[in-house]
């Protein structure tokens, strides 16, 4: 392990990949600086970032099933290990999955639930598929909102799972046209309790983002964010949501699904300086708005968690001109975050110079390799 990483930081100092995606084996050692990764399309750059994203709860930045991460044709199962410097502690992280099994997680040699990763690390990402966030369906924006919320409160994942489980049971009753209210009461109570916590967590996250944006000196436009429910205002608190679910049963029976709740929230972004909604901005402007949100999330986490998060910025230079690209690198370095960034050519990271560690990824005969760039 390389030395020189200061205390009070959050970064990976070593990452080992075994039979993960296109990597038979890969080892990366870092010194805490941003990591600039270049290589041709299809070489395995994104898979390297995806491996880092698996050091957080959930299915990673590609939302892939554990089975899909297994290297083919061997199909032996995959394993990722990492050394994480988190504030004033060092942790050994391990996550793996064998064919036909869910992934497991160990921290410092002890088996833990995935939520345990969120208690020692914070990982944020921006991937090309998110470039259309503002012009596609509400589901992607809701998932984006929940990822930001989860970065502040790892327990948000457990609350969300409890809500979704109860809602699936209620939806099953609705589809079966069950009308006896006694079947619904307990489920709606569970949904109301979890749903109220979900909304409170989301609101708290948006407030932290607003505070992190207000006084920030940044080259990127700061969007104003708001939550909107598909059916109008969502009742406040658990009791209000419970009543709304009970009152909406007849309509929900007709629809065969639950029509009110936090699962129907949309995230709206408005660019105040231009007086336009994010969906009406140009492609480059939408990218800049997304970067602004990721940076605001990182600044807020630096205050809330005690260190800036690990950032994963896949093909981040796309749709950015040279000036804005340089501004992004300056902000990442000023923040003190370990940002893992990818691009097709080394020239995309010229402005970083010695402020970053530069890696090159290549692929031969279906196997990816990573090495220090000259």
Structural notes for this entry:
- There is one protein chain.
- The model is unreliable at 1-7 (pLDDT under 50).
- This protein has 374 residues and is α/β, with parallel strands linked by helices.
- It folds into two domains: 1-122 and 305-374, 3-Layer(aba) Sandwich (Rossmann fold), CATH 3.40.50; 134-303, RecF/RecN/SMC, N-terminal domain (Glutathione S-transferase Yfyf (Class Pi), Chain A, domain 2).
- The strands form three sheets. Strands 2-1-4-5-6-7 form a six-stranded antiparallel β-sheet. A six-stranded mixed β-sheet has the order 8-12-13-3-14-15, with helices on both faces. It has a three-stranded antiparallel β-sheet with strand order 9-10-11, with helices on one face.
- Helix 3 packs across helix 5 (182-214) and helix 5 packs across helix 6 (237-247).
- The chain contains nine helices and 15 strands.
- The chain has helices at residues 45-53, 115-120, 138-152, 156-175, 182-214, 237-247, 249-255, 283-304, 322-335; strands spanning 9-20, 23-29, 35-38, 78-87, 89-97, 104-107, 110-112, 123-126, 224-229, 265-271, 276-277, 310-313, 339-343, 357-364, 367-372.
- 37% of the residues lie in helices and 24% in strands.
- It is globular and about 70 Å long.
């Amino acid at each position: 392990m390389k030395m020189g990483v200061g205390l009070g930081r959050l970064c990976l100092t070593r990452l080992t990949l075994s039979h993960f995606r296109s990597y038979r084996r890969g080892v990366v050692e870092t010194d805490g600086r941003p990591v600039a990764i270049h290589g041709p399309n299809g070489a395995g750059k994104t898979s390297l970032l995806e491996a880092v994203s698996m050091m957080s709860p959930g299915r990673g930045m590609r939302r892939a099933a554990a089975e899909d991460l297994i290297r083919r044709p061997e199909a032996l199962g995959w394993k990722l290990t990492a050394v994480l410097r988190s504030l004033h502690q060092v942790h050994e992280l391990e996550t793996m999955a064998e064919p036909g099994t869910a992934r497991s997680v160990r921290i410092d040699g002890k088996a833990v639930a995935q939520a345990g990763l969120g208690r020692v690390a914070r990982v944020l990402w921006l991937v090309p598929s998110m470039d259309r966030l503002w012009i596609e369906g509400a589901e992607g924006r809701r998932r984006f909102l929940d990822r930001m919320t989860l970065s502040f409160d790892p327990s948000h994942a457990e609350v969300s799972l409890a809500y979704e489980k109860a809602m699936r049971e209620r939806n099953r009753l609705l589809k079966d046209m069950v009308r006896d209210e006694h079947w619904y009461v307990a489920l709606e109570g569970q949904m109301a309790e979890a749903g109220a916590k979900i909304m409170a967590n989301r609101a708290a996250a948006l407030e932290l983002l607003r505070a992190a944006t207000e006084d920030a000196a940044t080259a990127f436009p700061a969007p104003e964010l708001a939550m909107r429910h598909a059916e109008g205002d969502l009742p406040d608190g658990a009791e209000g949501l419970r009543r709304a679910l009970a009152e909406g049963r007849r309509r929900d029976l007709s629809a065969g699904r639950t029509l009110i709740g936090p699962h129907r929230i949309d995230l709206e972004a408005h660019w105040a300086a231009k007086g336009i909604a994010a969906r009406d901005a140009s492609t480059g402007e939408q990218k800049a708005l997304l970067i602004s949100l990721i940076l605001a999330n990182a600044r807020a986490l630096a205050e809330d968690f005690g260190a800036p998060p690990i950032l994963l910025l896949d093909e981040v230079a796309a749709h950015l001109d040279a000036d804005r690209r340089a501004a992004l690198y300056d902000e990442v370095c000023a923040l003190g975050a370990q940002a893992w960034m990818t691009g097709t050519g080394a020239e995309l990271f010229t402005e970083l110079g010695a402020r970053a560690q530069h890696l090159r990824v290549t692929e031969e005969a279906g196997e990816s390799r990573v090495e220090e760039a000259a």
